[in-house]
Amino acid sequence: MKVEELYVMPDDGFTHELQGGMLVSEPLPGFRHGRVMVLVAELLSTHVRKHRLGVVLGGDSGFILARNPDTVRGPDVAFVSKARFDQHGDTIRAFTGAPDLAIEVLSPSNTRSALHGKVADYLAAGTLRVWVVDPEGRTVTVYASLLWPQRLGEDDTLDGGEVVPGFQVRVGELFEL
Protein backbone atom coordinates (compact mmCIF):
# COMPACT_ATOMS: atom_id res chain seq x y z
CA MET A 1 0.00 0.00 0.00
CA LYS A 2 1.18 3.55 -0.69
CA VAL A 3 0.78 6.75 1.33
CA GLU A 4 -1.81 8.06 -1.09
CA GLU A 5 -4.01 4.97 -0.57
CA LEU A 6 -3.73 5.25 3.20
CA TYR A 7 -5.26 8.72 3.18
CA VAL A 8 -8.38 7.71 1.24
CA MET A 9 -9.33 4.76 3.45
CA PRO A 10 -12.74 4.98 5.15
CA ASP A 11 -12.87 5.51 8.90
CA ASP A 12 -13.35 2.10 10.48
CA GLY A 13 -12.67 2.93 14.13
CA PHE A 14 -9.03 1.82 13.98
CA THR A 15 -5.83 3.81 13.67
CA HIS A 16 -3.74 2.90 10.63
CA GLU A 17 -0.08 3.18 9.74
CA LEU A 18 2.08 1.71 7.00
CA GLN A 19 5.15 -0.37 7.73
CA GLY A 20 7.08 -1.36 4.64
CA GLY A 21 3.97 -0.96 2.48
CA MET A 22 1.84 -3.14 4.76
CA LEU A 23 -1.20 -1.77 6.56
CA VAL A 24 -0.91 -1.90 10.36
CA SER A 25 -4.16 -1.39 12.28
CA GLU A 26 -4.72 -0.90 15.99
CA PRO A 27 -7.90 -0.38 18.01
CA LEU A 28 -8.52 3.01 19.57
CA PRO A 29 -6.10 3.25 22.50
CA GLY A 30 -8.46 4.20 25.33
CA PHE A 31 -9.19 6.87 27.92
CA ARG A 32 -6.00 6.85 30.02
CA HIS A 33 -3.87 6.85 26.89
CA GLY A 34 -5.68 9.93 25.62
CA ARG A 35 -5.39 11.73 28.95
CA VAL A 36 -1.65 11.12 29.24
CA MET A 37 -1.09 11.94 25.56
CA VAL A 38 -2.78 15.34 25.90
CA LEU A 39 -0.87 16.16 29.10
CA VAL A 40 2.47 15.33 27.45
CA ALA A 41 1.52 17.39 24.40
CA GLU A 42 0.38 20.31 26.55
CA LEU A 43 3.57 20.42 28.64
CA LEU A 44 5.81 20.12 25.59
CA SER A 45 3.79 22.56 23.47
CA THR A 46 3.79 25.25 26.18
CA HIS A 47 7.60 25.18 26.25
CA VAL A 48 8.00 24.96 22.47
CA ARG A 49 5.62 27.86 21.78
CA LYS A 50 7.13 30.06 24.51
CA HIS A 51 10.62 29.63 23.05
CA ARG A 52 9.52 29.46 19.38
CA LEU A 53 11.36 26.18 18.86
CA GLY A 54 9.01 24.64 16.29
CA VAL A 55 5.69 22.81 16.36
CA VAL A 56 4.17 20.07 18.49
CA LEU A 57 1.70 17.73 16.86
CA GLY A 58 -0.66 15.23 18.40
CA GLY A 59 -3.30 12.69 17.62
CA ASP A 60 -1.37 10.51 15.22
CA SER A 61 -0.17 13.11 12.71
CA GLY A 62 1.43 11.20 9.85
CA PHE A 63 5.14 11.16 9.02
CA ILE A 64 6.46 9.52 5.85
CA LEU A 65 9.55 7.70 7.10
CA ALA A 66 10.33 5.71 3.94
CA ARG A 67 9.17 5.28 0.34
CA ASN A 68 9.00 2.22 -1.92
CA PRO A 69 7.81 0.48 0.16
CA ASP A 70 6.12 3.23 2.11
CA THR A 71 6.32 3.54 5.87
CA VAL A 72 4.04 6.08 7.54
CA ARG A 73 3.98 6.36 11.30
CA GLY A 74 1.75 8.50 13.48
CA PRO A 75 3.31 9.15 16.87
CA ASP A 76 0.98 10.09 19.69
CA VAL A 77 2.91 13.36 20.10
CA ALA A 78 5.67 14.72 17.88
CA PHE A 79 7.99 17.71 17.71
CA VAL A 80 9.36 19.24 14.50
CA SER A 81 11.97 21.99 14.79
CA LYS A 82 11.21 25.44 13.42
CA ALA A 83 13.90 25.12 10.74
CA ARG A 84 12.48 21.84 9.44
CA PHE A 85 8.89 23.07 9.66
CA ASP A 86 9.78 26.21 7.72
CA GLN A 87 11.54 24.08 5.10
CA HIS A 88 8.64 21.64 4.58
CA GLY A 89 5.67 23.90 5.32
CA ASP A 90 2.31 23.11 6.89
CA THR A 91 1.43 20.03 4.85
CA ILE A 92 -2.17 18.88 4.66
CA ARG A 93 -1.47 15.16 4.89
CA ALA A 94 1.67 13.37 6.04
CA PHE A 95 4.90 15.27 6.71
CA THR A 96 7.72 14.06 4.47
CA GLY A 97 10.45 12.98 6.85
CA ALA A 98 10.80 12.01 10.47
CA PRO A 99 9.86 14.12 13.48
CA ASP A 100 12.79 15.40 15.54
CA LEU A 101 11.10 13.88 18.60
CA ALA A 102 8.51 11.09 18.49
CA ILE A 103 6.52 10.23 21.60
CA GLU A 104 4.57 7.00 21.93
CA VAL A 105 2.21 6.50 24.86
CA LEU A 106 1.71 2.81 25.57
CA SER A 107 -1.80 1.45 25.29
CA PRO A 108 -3.18 -2.01 26.15
CA SER A 109 -2.97 -3.19 22.52
CA ASN A 110 0.76 -2.41 22.13
CA THR A 111 3.05 -5.42 21.90
CA ARG A 112 6.75 -5.26 22.71
CA SER A 113 7.72 -6.26 19.15
CA ALA A 114 5.39 -3.72 17.51
CA LEU A 115 6.71 -0.97 19.76
CA HIS A 116 10.30 -1.95 19.01
CA GLY A 117 9.44 -1.75 15.30
CA LYS A 118 8.04 1.76 15.68
CA VAL A 119 11.09 2.98 17.59
CA ALA A 120 13.38 1.40 14.99
CA ASP A 121 11.45 3.03 12.13
CA TYR A 122 11.66 6.48 13.73
CA LEU A 123 15.37 6.25 14.49
CA ALA A 124 16.26 4.81 11.05
CA ALA A 125 14.41 7.69 9.38
CA GLY A 126 16.33 10.34 11.35
CA THR A 127 14.31 10.97 14.49
CA LEU A 128 16.76 12.24 17.09
CA ARG A 129 14.87 11.01 20.18
CA VAL A 130 11.95 8.72 20.88
CA TRP A 131 10.15 8.79 24.22
CA VAL A 132 8.03 5.78 25.16
CA VAL A 133 5.66 6.82 27.93
CA ASP A 134 4.27 3.99 30.04
CA PRO A 135 1.22 5.08 32.08
CA GLU A 136 0.97 1.67 33.79
CA GLY A 137 4.60 1.58 34.94
CA ARG A 138 4.76 5.39 35.31
CA THR A 139 8.04 5.48 33.41
CA VAL A 140 9.50 7.01 30.26
CA THR A 141 12.07 5.19 28.17
CA VAL A 142 14.26 7.51 26.09
CA TYR A 143 15.81 6.23 22.88
CA ALA A 144 18.62 7.96 21.01
CA SER A 145 19.52 4.52 19.63
CA LEU A 146 17.98 1.07 19.93
CA LEU A 147 21.01 -0.23 21.78
CA TRP A 148 21.10 2.10 24.79
CA PRO A 149 17.63 3.15 25.95
CA GLN A 150 17.42 5.11 29.19
CA ARG A 151 14.52 4.29 31.51
CA LEU A 152 13.33 7.09 33.80
CA GLY A 153 11.13 6.63 36.87
CA GLU A 154 8.60 8.97 38.47
CA ASP A 155 11.16 11.02 40.39
CA ASP A 156 13.59 11.38 37.46
CA THR A 157 13.73 14.43 35.21
CA LEU A 158 12.89 14.04 31.54
CA ASP A 159 14.61 16.68 29.44
CA GLY A 160 14.60 17.66 25.80
CA GLY A 161 18.39 17.70 25.48
CA GLU A 162 19.59 19.26 22.26
CA VAL A 163 16.34 18.29 20.50
CA VAL A 164 14.03 20.51 22.60
CA PRO A 165 16.45 22.82 24.45
CA GLY A 166 15.42 23.83 27.96
CA PHE A 167 12.48 21.44 28.28
CA GLN A 168 12.38 19.62 31.63
CA VAL A 169 9.64 17.84 33.54
CA ARG A 170 9.57 15.40 36.43
CA VAL A 171 8.35 12.11 34.94
CA GLY A 172 5.63 11.73 37.58
CA GLU A 173 3.97 14.95 36.33
CA LEU A 174 3.11 13.19 33.08
CA PHE A 175 0.66 10.95 34.94
CA GLU A 176 -0.94 13.37 37.42
CA LEU A 177 -4.60 14.30 37.28
Helical content band: 25-40%
Q: Report mean pLDDT, rounded to a whole number.
A: 93
Shape: globular
Q: What's the count of strands? A: 13
Gyration radius, rounded: 15 Å
Give the strand order, joined by hyphens, for the main sheet: 3-6-8-9-10-11
- Beta-strand portion reads 25-35%
Task: Please mark out the parts with pLDDT under 50 across 5 or more consecutive residues, or reply none.
Answer: none
The SS-based structural class is alpha+beta
Give the count of helical stretches.
Answer: 4
Q: What is the distance, rounded to the nearest whole angstrom, between the alpha carbons of the first and last residues?
A: 40 Å
In short:
The protein is an alpha+beta fold and 177 residues long. The protein has helices at residues 3-6, 31-51, 82-88, 112-125, and strands spanning 14-19, 22-27, 54-58, 63-66, 71-73, 77-81, 95-96, 101-105, 129-134, 139-143, 150-152, 157-159, 168-170. Strand 4 and strand 5 form a beta hairpin.
Question: Which terms would index this structure?
Answer:
13 strands; 177 residues; alpha+beta; 26% helix; 6-stranded mixed β-sheet; 3-stranded mixed β-sheet
Question: What features would you describe in this structure?
Answer:
The protein is α+β, with helices and mostly antiparallel strands. The protein is built from 4 helices and 13 strands. The protein has helices spanning 3-6, 31-51, 82-88, 112-125, and strands at residues 14-19, 22-27, 54-58, 63-66, 71-73, 77-81, 95-96, 101-105, 129-134, 139-143, 150-152, 157-159, 168-170. The strands form 4 sheets. A 6-stranded mixed β-sheet has the order 3-6-8-9-10-11, sandwiched between helices. A 3-stranded mixed β-sheet has the order 5-4-7, with helices on one face. It is globular. The N and C termini lie far apart (40 Å).
